[in-house]
Design goal:
- This protein has one domain.
- With about 80 residues, it is α+β, with helices and mostly antiparallel strands.
- Helices cover about 30% and strands about 20% of the residues.
- A hairpin with a 2-residue loop joins β2 and β3.
- A three-stranded antiparallel β-sheet has the order 1-2-3.
- The radius of gyration is 13 Å and the shape is globular.
- It comes from Deinococcus metalli.
- This is Myo-inositol catabolism protein IolC.
């Protein structure tokens, strides 16, 4: 599993919410980034079950893919 060498995921920027219909919405700072359904949602939930928060952050970052290109501001930091 990839490392968080710069410690950027320590702030808990990613989150997820499992829906009743089996889908999982993965969010970044509370904004939905991707929705997983079916087998992908099941695999994701199995991977994050029992992980500590930082390890789960790494899994969620991986699932969202490369959606950040560097042109978004650094949220929450001044």
């Amino acid at each position: 599993m990839p490392e968080d060498a710069r410690g950027e995921l320590l702030d808990g920027r990613f989150g997820y919410h499992a829906l009743k219909d089996g889908r999982v919405v993965v969010s970044w700072y509370g904004r939905p980034v991707t929705t997983l359904a079916g087998r992908d949602a099941e695999r994701f939930l199995a991977r994050v079950e029992g992980l500590d928060d930082h390890a789960a952050q790494l899994v969620m970052a991986r699932v969202t893919g490369n959606f950040r290109r560097g042109n978004e501001g650094r949220r929450g930091r001044t």
